[in-house]
Amino acid sequence: MQRLINIIIQFKEYFLLNLLIVISFILLASNDTKQIKAIRSYTVGFIGLVQNTMATIPNVFELQRENELLRKLNISLSDEVNRLREAKIENEQLRKMLEFKEKSQYQLVSADVIGKSLHLLKNTITLNAGEKDGVQVDMPIISEQGIVGRVVVVSSNYSIGQLIINKDFRTSVKIQRSRVDGILAWDGSDYLLMKNVSKKQDVLLGDLVITSEYSRVFPPQIKVGVVAEVSEDAVSLFKNIKITPIVNMTKLEQVFVIKTTADTERVAIENRLKKK
Amino acid sequence: MMNKHIKLIFISIFLIVVQTTVIRYLTLEGIIPDLLLILIVYISITQGQMSGTLYGFGIGLLFDLITGGVLGISSLSKAIAGFVSGYFFSENKIELTLGSYRFLLILLFVSSIHNLIYFLIFVQGSEINTLYAISNVGLTSALYTTTVSILIVLIFARKYSLKI
Q: Do residue B69 and residue A44 have CB atoms under 8 angstroms apart?
């Protein structure tokens, strides 16, 4: 026994490393357990407080550039508002005439991005909105331009969002013009990928990609990006489609969480089919 | 001794917060320096292999917890990083290592190993090409982290009146 203890003491560094490697692998295998989610929620709540304070440190250069951009945007938006007012009046008249009900708007929760982990392709954001604001796991995150990601961890006052430029992110999308469906994924580059689109389908450069009705998380018709490259491999049945994201993730400062969760009846019936 | 560890724990938490907030202003082509890795290498060189490994694991675990994503990936890669950098611990040469190009070489080496382990696990089950991740992100990140640490080496060189 004493000999064993001596050996352990002599090689304590190696034993420690092995122990920690084993613990890490156990953690890697148990990422979705309730206990891990609870610990994560408490940690996010604690660190979120500190991050919130740190996030207020202004970046002078960024602010100057943003100010300039906002001024330009303001001018073009004023012009657009005038045109939209005209269009709205015309639209309302037409709606009344056709007795169409106005589509209901999504309920949005606004949130500031108080932390970003863009390190080593991790790509998550911390938001200063949590359970108290009605945010739940799997709620979509958008900006005024388009899709940003989805909520993966929530504490009382903070939440973590998985960006669309995250290796684990997947959602159903479609080409707005030709209604061709596909799966959105990310390959680690500056582009997103639209997978599972057969070579026969109609996809052109510049086509707008939007979320489709098949997604359990995202409402349909949210802008995703623009087709930047379409190519074909002789060995594959599918097209290689690269998409430029419509939202610049590095400059993300304010976002909205859509207060919508998956249709439980739909999920249940789909799961039942999967089990058969 | 206890005070030293309390101080290191506070520095670790502070740097984790910095790593997820203000450090984004140092982004170059989507790459940011890994301040946590610099701290782990520093701990290994000044406190030894055991401390480096333990701190690496702890810091990595906390970082995984607060950034979402795969839990255990940073704790594993950072524990190994702490362990590897512990081989460069020499009680009589701490000042010389911290205040010279040696620290930069150690950091570059450890950072490359860290990123290699990280990406070998990270890219599994994704569309990301392993070779692309290791060469384009892993190596550039290691170089950027090493470049940022030049400042730290200069501070130590001045503190210990050494010539780099």
A: no
